[in-house]
Amino acid sequence: MTDPKATKASASSEASADGKPPEKGASSEGSWRPLLRFWSFVRPHRRWLFLGLAMIPIVAGMAALRPLLLKEAVDVDIAGRDIISLRVTALLFMGAVAAEFLAQAVQVYALQRTGHTTIADLRRSVFRHILRLPARFFDNNPIGALLSRSTTDVEALSETLSFGVFTILTDVVMIIAVLSAMFYLDAGLTLLSLAIAPVLAIIVRIFSRRLRKLQLEVRKAQAVQSGYLTEQIAGATVVQLFGREQATGDEYLRLGGRYLKATKTANIYDALLYSLMDGISALSIALMIYFGAPGLTQANGLTLGLIFAFVDYLQRLFVPIREFSGKLAVIQRALAALDRIYGLLDQPAERRADPKSEDPLTTWRGGIRVRDLRFRYREEGPEILKGISFDLAPGEVVAVVGRTGSGKTSLGRVLTRSYDGYTGSVALETERGPVEVDSIAPDLLRQHALMVQQDVFLFSDDVAFNVSLGDPPIAGEARRIDDALATVQATAFVEERGGLGFEIGERGRNLSAGEAQLVAFARVAARQPQLLILDEATASVDSLTENKVQRAIEELFRGRSVLVIAHRLSTVRRADKILVMDAGTIAEFGDHETLMAEGGMYAELYHQGLRED
Fold this sequence. Notes:
Largest sheet: 6 strands, mixed
Radius of gyration: 35 Å
CATH architecture of the domain at 16-345: Up-down Bundle
Distance between the termini: 45 Å
């Protein structure tokens, strides 16, 4: 049984803010371009990287020297029965082994250190970028998909840096060193041993292309499944309440089937490539022995030591080539992960204010002038706000009422720049003149205009953090937090729970709806914005708690402009003006008594349920 939510999660987890797959832009850059772009994250740690890379020639040189010493021991020292020379050669051999292993240890440490610190930087960059993305992006991308990119995709890169791309550089230098030594010893025997190298190159190229497509499919399938899992766990209570456990489990199994199928296919190609490489290496040794060994009886320069050295060299040559199949799979996973990560990082983030620039809202007192405001969430979507105009004077309280879908919340979102793309004018009236909202960086605007929503989100931390949100000026001053709690009538219940150090559970699960709302109001009280927008902030609060909230917000109303999106008359009647919205337009505008006397839409809403409790 298919859950329709899964289809939505499947589609949206692969879409960007504009509905296009984020992977598309990155994957078109070419097979290795994403790794080249990744250099910007590696650059700060390049000293350790260069130290690790400097060890590569030493490791490869010592590995190429050891078969030469073996040949010397067999053809010269043992053949001439020179024990002293044999012991010297043995000491040189042990020295080469020690030098190789020491250089290899330094190389592994330096490269892994580079990898881990680089990945840590990348994780921070991805997380910070996600926090700066506009609301439209989150409308089209579920949390599970973003979690997959921030964790599993980044982890794939960690595996690559410690096992893949840098060790491949070692393998390349090793192959060059070994081939150089082989040609130095015997060019003809070397060409004979590498007769099937073209076949090897064709196989690697074919498998490389197929593995990359499969790894990208694995990442996509994993993101879809993670998104569905996150959504269903968050809604576990609803799933149980409506008996959807079996159907939900079946859908999760179906989504997992896509991931499992792609993984199995990738494993098949990986195993085939590994086995083919192993077989080709054994075949090369066999060809060399079959055609080269008879030459030992002829006067063509072939010796037993040379054969031993070539067998050793071929093993050393094909070990990195054979392991290349595994490293190739790791790199393909990394390239697929990079495609997805860059698809996320390439999403345009909200503009941030220059810390050195002057704040244009220092003289703003909360006055707003809205003219012919039009807004839609998507370019091809319906128009939500249809040419509305009104004024909000400094210190004035305006209530916004209307039926569901009339555009009330959208108006608040435009005023705080949660969503951009409006037409018309939304000007903030400062002493220096009007300042258009879309000319102000969102983070700067939100220092002066705050919005409290009905759905309060609290973090798994103490009361002090949930009020200050880690803002240094507030977090470093406990008195400021205490005053904010006192303003919103929350001091009593906080002290009953243990004070500012009381740990609030995830999403405020150990608080009532009213208590959680009071904490949300305390956040505003601690910041004292010029404009306060209440989006049905008391809709889920009981009457007793609402009385406390009403007394609190009356204090918050003093000296600032307030836009109240409300369902309760107790809130609406305190407003200086009431703005009645209908289908994205302003149907009526005035105070309570005037609108009731007119007997229009406001009076109808009042009689239908907009009543004082």
